[in-house]
């Protein structure tokens, strides 16, 4: 479990100030060409963040939005790979500290992805109880009603249980934040651009991972409020997105919801409505039109939940493989400008399937 948080004093991204002030463009003597590369990167990051703004409150926090957020994060990691290629920064010019920072942070990201994957497995296992209940509700025997009721009870029991691996994500996120203090960059305008771009992607990573952790844990205490300096062009878009998403999540939890995942809340509401009608194995031969409609609604809701989880799980798995491959490429790449194209912050060239 993460440490208790006062809702009026949320976790700060940089409790000791912003360590990235040392890589600000001011005084770095960037050429117009290099500055243009950084500006283009940050403009794309701004656009990705803006596209995650909710179109309606009903979208918070849907599995489809979470899938978009994961796709956006994957795009940002691949954009770092493109930037490295455009900078023509050979591996031989990489400071050992830069590599150590990336390997350390990416390892933490992989740990979080593994925790998310374990939650998908848990939720899919819970859904088996729903599927079995729906199968029994198609019958006409009162014994089938008893089985359906038992399956729904199993679902409620397991869906409200805690995943210990998700609970540990808060600790990983805390460690991730402490490791984001990138090393100073001296006498390298290209290095400063790379570090500033990485900062933007790391902020996006911490935000998305904290939202996922809060959603899966059922606790707003898992959220992180990131304080980003206005000097970054993407900061306003990020601040608006973070404020909207975090406020919505906290509001939903304060209203007594056990989950902020819309698809999961819908299923839970239907199960609560259905249970009294089938409690005790009621005579299935006198099924009312209302009962049949409720069962049909549960079937549609379960299908939507299953499909949403499947798409999100695939997105997280793809992200995991890209980060893992980038680590492998970075460690094995020879000291040449050609090799760096495949060892970026999420490059997907020559993607290897990892068991």
Overview of this protein structure:
The protein is an all-alpha fold and 355 residues long. It has one domain (39-340). It contains 11 helices and no strands. It has helices at residues 32-51, 63-87, 96-137, 142-159, 164-167, 169-178, 189-217, 235-254, 262-278, 289-332, 337-340. α3 (96-137) packs parallel to α7 (189-217) and α7 (189-217) packs parallel to α8 (235-254). The two termini are 29 Å apart. The model is unreliable at 1-28 and 334-355 (pLDDT under 50).
Over all CA atoms, what is the radius of gyration? Answer: 23 Å
Structural class computed from helices and strand pairing: mainly alpha
User: What coarse outline follows from CA principal-axis ratios?
Assistant: elongated
Percentage of residues in helical conformation: 55-70%
Question: Could you list the spans in which at least 5 consecutive residues all have pLDDT below 50?
Answer: 1-28, 334-355
Main sheet overview: none
Estimate nothing, just give the exact number of structural domains: 1
The number of distinct β-strands equals 0
What series of H and E elements makes up the topology?
Answer: HHHHHHHHHHH
What proportion strand?
under 5%
Organism: Lupinus angustifolius (Narrow-leaved blue lupine)
Pfam family, one: ROH1-like
Subcellular location: Membrane
Keywords: Membrane, Transmembrane, Transmembrane helix
Quick tags:
355 residues, mainly alpha, disordered N terminus
Summarize the structure.
This protein is mainly alpha-helical and 355 residues long.
SSE map:
Elements: H1 32-51, H2 63-87, H3 96-137, H4 142-159, H5 164-167, H6 169-178, H7 189-217, H8 235-254, H9 262-278, H10 289-332, H11 337-340
Helix pairs in contact: 1-2, 1-7, 1-8, 2-7, 2-10, 3-4, 3-6, 3-7, 3-10, 4-9, 6-7, 7-8, 9-10
């Amino acid at each position: 479990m993460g440490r208790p948080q006062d809702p009026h004093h949320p976790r700060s991204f940089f409790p000791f100030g912003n360590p990235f002030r040392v890589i600000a463009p001011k005084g770095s003597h960037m050429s117009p060409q290099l500055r243009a590369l950084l500006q283009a990167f940050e403009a794309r990051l701004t656009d990705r963040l803006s596209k995650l703004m909710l179109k309606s409150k009903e979208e918070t926090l849907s599995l489809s939005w979470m899938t978009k957020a994961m796709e956006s994060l994957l795009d940002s990691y691949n954009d770092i790979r493109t930037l490295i290629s455009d900078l023509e920064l050979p591996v031989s010019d990489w400071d050992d500290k830069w590599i150590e920072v990336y390997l350390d942070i990416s390892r933490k990201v992989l740990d979080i992805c593994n925790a998310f994957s374990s939650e998908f497995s848990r939720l899919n296992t819970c859904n088996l109880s729903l599927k079995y209940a729906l199968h029994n509700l198609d019958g006409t025997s009162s014994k089938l009603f008893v089985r359906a009721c038992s399956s729904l009870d199993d679902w409620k029991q397991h869906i409200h249980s805690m995943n210990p691996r998700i609970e540990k994500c808060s600790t990983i996120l805390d460690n991730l934040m402490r490791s984001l203090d990138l090393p100073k960059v001296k006498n390298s305008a290209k290095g400063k651009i790379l570090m500033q771009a990485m900062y933007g992607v790391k902020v996006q990573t911490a935000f998305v991972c904290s939202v996922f952790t809060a959603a899966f844990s059922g606790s707003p205490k898992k959220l992180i409020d990131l304080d980003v300096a206005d000097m970054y062009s993407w900061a306003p878009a990020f601040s608006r997105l973070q404020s909207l998403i975090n406020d919505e999540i906290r509001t939903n939890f304060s209203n007594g919801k056990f989950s902020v995942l819309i698809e999961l809340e819908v299923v839970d509401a239907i199960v609560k409505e259905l249970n009294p009608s089938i409690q005790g194995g009621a005579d299935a031969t006198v099924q009312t039109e209302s009962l049949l409609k409720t069962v049909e609604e549960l079937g549609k809701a379960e299908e939507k939940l299953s499909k949403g989880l499947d798409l999100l799980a695939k997105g997280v798995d793809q992200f995991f493989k890209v980060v893992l491959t980038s680590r492998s490429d970075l460690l094995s790449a020879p000291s040449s400008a050609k090799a760096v194209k495949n060892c970026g912050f999420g490059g997907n060239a020559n993607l290897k399937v990892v068991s």
